[in-house]
Each structure stands twice: as C-alpha cells, then as structure tokens.
Amino acid sequence: MRQKALLSFVLALVWLAPVMAQTREITGKVTDEAAKDLPGVSIVIKGTQRGTVTDATGVYKLAIPDQGPVTITFSFVGYQSQEVSPVGQSTLDVTMKPEDNALSEVVVVGYGTQRKKDLTGAISSIGSKDVAGRQTIQVSEALQGSIAGVSVTRSSGAPGAGSNILIRGITTIGTNNPLVIVDGVPVSSIDNVNPGDVENITVLKDAASAAIYGSRGAAGVILVTTKRAKSGQGSLEYTYEYGVQRATATPEYVGVLDYMRYFNEQTTNDGASTGPFAQAFVDSYLENNRANPDEFPNTDWQRALITKKNAPRQRHDLVFTMGTGKIKTKASLGYSNSGAFYDNRSYNRYLFRVNNDLQVNDKIGVNLDVFYKRTTNKGNANELPNNDFNPIYESRVMPPIYDDVYSDGRMAFGKDGRNPLAKLRDGGFTRSLANQIGGRISFNYKPVNGLTVTALVAPVFDLDKNKYFSKQIRYTNPDGTPSTVVNQARTILTEGRTEGVSINGQLLANYVKELNGGHTIDILAGFEENYRSLETLSASRSGFALTDFPYLNSGSTELRDNSGGANESGLHSFFGRLQYNYKSRYFIQGNLRSDLSSRFAAAYRRAVYPSVSAGWTISEESFLKNNPWLSFLKVRGSWGEAGNERLLDKDNNPAYYPYLATIDFSTALFYQNGSVVPLTGGGQQVYAVENISWETSRTIDFGLDAAFLNDRLTIAADYYKKTTRDILLPLDIPLYLGYDKPNQNAGTLHVRGWELEASWRDRINKLGYSVAANLSDAKSTVGDLKGTEFRGDQIIRNGSEYNEWFGYLSNGLFQTQDEITGAPVLNVTTKPGDVRYVDVNKDGKITTDDKVLLGGALPRYLYGGNVRLDYEGFDFGISFQGVAKKLSRLNTDIVQPFAEAFGNMPAEMVGKFWSVNNTAEQNLGATYPRLSRTSNSANYALSDYWLLNGGYFRVKNITLGYSLPQTLMKKAGVQGLRFYVSANDVLSFSKFPKYVDPESSTSYAYPIVTTLMAGATIRF
Fold it and tell me: Is the pTM higher than 0.70?
C-alpha cells in the first residue's frame, strides 16, 4: 500500500514538474501619466481568458507562461489599451495614456458602430463625462449647448419638467421631436434614462445617417448607449447629492397704495368719472390696516403662496459592476426627489437598470437587460392635469387688497371665494403615478469569421394612474359666522388608468470582410417589427358628503361620469446598409429602408428611404501623410431621405387612423317630451382622405473633419440643405359637405444651415485640460402650402420663416389728441398714450391687412461649449450655452397690468408708462402705453413694440471636485472617494428686464431655477 502511495506521489511530481516549470509570476504597478494609481485595470494574457485586475493601489500579480512569446493586454475605461511582451522580466510597471484621440473612438450609429474617423454622415456624440458632469436629473437638459445643431429649450423649471429637443431646426408643421433609441430600442423619452447610466449619446443629424430609421428619422435620431461592465471590473459605487434651487428671476408688483392709485387711473382712462378707491380711503388705508387688517388687508400674495425661497433637490445612485470572462453585470438604482417653492408640490423618480452580457461560448453571446422606472408627480387641486390651478399665476395676478388669512388664522374669502392660499392648504391634491418596466434580450451568433447574426426582442409596459381631488372650501365670515361663499360648487374626484404596451423585435445580419489590397466591406441586412397599443379609462364623481375621503364610492351616484379609449399601431420594416473603404482612405456608404405603417391605407403604407454618402481622407494621401502639423483631414458628402409617420389630428393629438372615417362622440341637448335632455351621439366630423401618406425629408450635407498637432486640435464643420415635402395640411373642401378640413399631403418646408465644432485637449505636466465649443445656424423657410396659412401672433405661410412673428409695425405712442385726429388707428377709442401703428398699405386705417412679417421666433444661432481641468486629484469644469438672432416677446405678467380686469400691477412699469399725470417730457420718454383695459386688445396686439432681442448667454454648469489620494483609503478597501460642489444656471446675460429669465417664454410659468449642489461618490 505504501509502495502504491509512493509511486503515485512520484508520478504526480513528474507530471507537475513541467507544468510548474512552464509558468512564472510577474508583478507590477499601473499608473497614469500623472503617476496616479489606477485600480481596476484589466490585465489579460492575449488569446486566453487568464488575467487579473489591479488592486486599490494599482498593483497586480499575474502568472504567465515561461515558454514562448507572451503578450499582456492592459485596458481601462478612458485610457488607451496597451500590449506589452515581457521578456525575462519579473517586474513590469505600466503607464497608461488617456484616450485623447477622439477620431479613433468608436461611436454608435444605426444598428451598429463605426470608428469616428470612418464616418461619412453628419454625426456628433458626447460621452458620459459630458452627460453626468452637468449634474442634471434629466438627460435632455444635459444636451443643452453640448452638440452643434441640437436645440434644447425649457419653458419651466418645475419639479419633473423636461425639455424640448430639435435637431437642425424645424422639419415639419406637426411633430418635430427626434426619434430616441436606447441600446438599440426606441423609447418614448430620453429622460427615462438615468444620466449616470449613460455611456455616450450620438446624434444622427442628416438624412444619410438617419435614413436607416426610415419613416421615423426625418426629425433626426438620438442614440443613447448605457454603461456595461467590462472584463476584470469589480466595484460598488454610491453617490449622494443634495441641492437647493432658487428662481433665476422673479417679477415684482406694486404695493397696495400704488395698486389703488393706478387702478383708479386705469378706470378714469376708460371713461369713469372717478375710480373705485376714494382718495381719503387710499390715504388712510395703511393706518386702517394696522388697526383692522381683516377689513383692510394688505397681502403680499407672492410671499403668502411662494413660501420657500429655496426648493430642495436630492439624488442617490447605487451602482454595482462585476465583469469576468463569461459574465458581465452592471446594475444601478437611482432615486431623485425635487421639491417646489410652494407646499404640496413634489416630484420623485426611481430608476433601476441591470445590463447583463453573457458569453455562452466562442460563437454565442447573450445580452439580457431589464429596467424599471417609477415617477410620482404630486401637486395641488387641479394643478397637474390641465394646469387649471397655477399657484405661480395666482401669486402674481392677485392684488394686495384681497385678504388671504384672517387675524385668527381662518381662511379669508380672497376675491369672491377665490383664495389660492386656501386652495393650497385645503383644496385637495393631484397625483400622477407612472410605472414603466421593460427589458431587452438579444442573441449574437458568429457562425463564421466576420459574420454576426443578432436576434433581439424588447417589450416595454407602461402602467400609469392619476388621481385629481378638487375639494369644495366653505369659508366663514370675518366675525366667525358661517358664510355661503365657496370656492366651487362641488367637491370633484377624477381617476384615470392607462395601460400601454410596445414591443420591438429585430433580426440583423452583419458581415465584415477585409480583402487583399486594403479593401474592406461591411454589409448589414435587417428586419424590424414595432408594435404598440394603448388603452385608457377615466371615471369621476362629485357631490362628496365627506370631503376628506378621496375615493369614488363616497361620491354621489347621480353626479358621475366615465370615459375610455384605445388605439394601436404597427410598423413593419426591412433595411440594409453597405459600407466600403479602401485603406481607410476612400469611403462610400449606402442605406435603404422599406417601411409599412398601419397609419396609412393598405395601398399607400409602403415607403422606401434611400441614402448615399462618401468620404475622402485626404491626410492618407502621400502628399499629406507625413505632414507634422496635420493629423487628419477628411471631406465628406451625403444625400438621403427620411420620413415622418407621426401625424397629428385636428386637436393636435397623435393620429393613428387618419385615412379612416372615424366617429367622434359628443353630448348635445335634445328637446324630448316637453323637456330638454342631454344625450350622447356620434358622428363623423373630419372628412377622410384615403390616399394620404408619408411626409418625406430630403437632406444634402457637405462636411469636413480635421485634426491638427497630434490630434490635440479637432474640428468638424457641416453645411446642409433640407427640404420636407408632402407635409400634411388641412386643405379646404366644399362647405356643403359638412366636415372639418381633412389633412392632405401638400406642403413643403426648407431649412438651410451650417455647424461648427472645435476642441483642444492637451496636458502640461500634471495639468490636463480641454476646451470645446460649437456654433450652428439654421433658417427655416416655408414653401408652397397650397394657399393654407396658420395665422396668429406667429404665422406659417408661403415665404415666411416657421412660426415667424406676424403683427403690426409701431411708431411709438400717441402723445396728443391732435396726433390722433385724422391718423389711421386700430381702435376708434384710441387716445393719447396708446400705441401708434404704421399704415402699411396706405388705406387710411389700421386693419389686419397692415400686419407684416416681423422676424423669426426661433433662434438662428445656437452655441455652447465647456472647459475642463484636472490636477493632482482636483477636477474643474465649466460649461456655457446660448442663442442669438432671435426675437422674443415680453411676457404679459411683466408688461400688462390688471389681468382679468382686477389683477396686479407689475413694478417694472412704475414710472415708465404714459400718464395724464406726467409732464410732456416724461410721456415722450414713456416705455409703456397708458393704463387701460378697453385699449388692451389694441395696445398689446402683437407688434414690434413688444419684441426684443431674445439672444442670451448662460453659464450652464460649474463643478469643482476633489478625489482623495488612494494611499489614504487602501486599507479600508476603498477604490476612490470624490467630493464635489456644483452649480447649474448660475449666470446669464441678455436684453431682457431683470425680472425675466431669457428662457422663460411662457407667461406666469414656474420659474427657471439656479441649482446649487454638493455631493460625494465613494467606490469600493
């Protein structure tokens, strides 16, 4: 027995000896150019799955074969990969260089990726640092000023508010929102993604690059790629951030005495012999207020309602990353919460995402992703559904002569039962809850070298509900007795449920082959199916006996209502792409997509979208290849078509069956059996045109990409012309048919513009720095609309810019009655102090025929940029953004007094309006017309009098961070700890009055906010 054991031991030694002799250990340390330790660097023996990662101090140990040549690959996110072959070395230290060569980066394009230097279309991208570095909750806001030709506008800074995105201006008269794709799957909003999860964002701007998306690509395409784990990574990261928001601009209003004086003047200007407030009443008002504030109120409604100067905002992000040779997982959970400047208003959001990459074997890989989004938007009674109750509006329109709270704390009447403070406290609530859960599973199969077959399916489910509870408030008289005054007739509860399903399926085949002689071909063929359905249900009751029980069964069964609806749509597509390049010098690419949409009749639902683009890398030619100052130079050109199937109905809602005669239901009054009764009936309201089809956008683009001085300076420039034809317009039909105008393919729209992007990146010893800027211009011109005009203060008609201001030319203010006598006027009640208009057609009167085009409401120039620095653990970034050559209208809450015939008086107007109490010299210098309600329609009609330069420059973000040295934390197992302070929208310059934010284009809107933040990120 002992002999057998001894023999086994000897055999084992004989077997192990050569194995042990075949390996040796190599150790070392990995740092960056600033000698900073790099933890988590992936170190792999090339051609094998054997490897390791560096520890918290950048140190590694690796067993390598002792026989034959060995190549070790070092890779780390944000740095250039390195391959090193140690020969007889037991110690190997590596210094990694940042990935400075932006042209070598791989960018996401439609259904694939390309090297940036190989692109032939107009494509721009930004990375995770540019997105997360803005410290925004919404991804859309992080795009503002980041990419040339991309316009991002905000109308509100309310909790949960998003932004509107346009790519290269206006494409159609209907829906101009770009298509958003996240990890290859279309989504409803870019703000459904956590900014911290974004790896990069690519924007396809011309039709040549967007044509691969066919009928959905006319307005441009935004491709979002989320972060995924890489082999060798392993970390747990937590970020906490707390911030406060403050209004960038707030209008002011006059005090109670001035309000009464000016209201009196307005009343007498409009023909009354005296004003409603006697002079003695005015003179003694403040004294009476001190003695009896309930009878003589002096209410600052902005202070009463807007109780918080600072609104809180906080964010938590937890990220887990683990990558091995076979399984790579990245999971994130994000929570954000935003408050408001007044009570009972908040927004919170949960975002959960897990991205899994599974390598089954050498030929099969699987991607399995799951995400979940939950948002809760809370507000006051009727605040959220239709903005019927707007606390910002109420705080600005309510004058100080109405009381909010009696001295003993009871709610006062306000104005005839309209007390917005009472509605904030006791008027009920609104709550919108949105749940979205989805996933993506894709199989990647590589049967032969160069061929990849991908099958993908991605379902998304939306489960939303809302509840609006508007309560009746019963007031008491100042003496405490019950009052008959109420804010509304009944307490009303409305609840809604929405269920949506969308499924995206794809089958792709991609073949890449490098041929002898430097020829490379890349062929993509694919099929895609998109299906969506939506079903809604709504119910309401009123007549609640118990106003503190917000459930439908406690309402009156005699006072109830309900409604519901459903729709569905599908898109069936085949597409392909062929790319060819010769020695990375000459490039040509062609795309073709065929779409079938359920939104059109069977005979008209197919559309084909082609595109072609080409590029020439001049720097690869022999006469430039060794130029010391030129690193890269490529010219490119493209032509392509893309479509728009997102049509709108007569109410500007999505139209899913525009070619069908649909029945609209409504309630009308009928006389039956001697009484009038309401009955519901249905009928066709819009004439159906069967042969309507796609809107098509055609773009020609010429571009240049260049890099200088060893890629430190990069420049990209584009010039383009875009024409959209077959725009759906409501064309006239004979009135005797009895239908509303149907949409028909008829209109054209032209856009012409250019874009410029430039960046400089370099390092001076331990200081790394970069500067980037972009500038773009786009001008839209409306083509033939077959006689159709969309008129108002902004107009769309042949020859105009899209939504160009349309109004009168002004010539100051009338100063005397003699100037008015015999002069053309808009209103027979015109008096001195009213706006004087120019009689353009010389017919002796001012009519709508004197209206002219006044200039563009959309900005011509967009610009933005950033500066970033890093030095020994410190990092600093500043970004800016702005617009130019834009006309804006002064908002009514700033320049128009006494809204609703009783409202407040803007302090901006004091001393600046025409008045009978002024001297002639003062009136000559007056900015605003006389105080009048009867002349408002004339004085505040759209004219150049109320337009001003709407351009502005804004500092979007300033961030200063510090990362602690890793030597201080390695014993605790901490890979990194960073603290930072940041500020968004901190400073702006414009021609607007100081009470107005240049981005706030809507009167009485929730203000744009400045956000001050502090946070920390720890990584284990």
Answer: yes
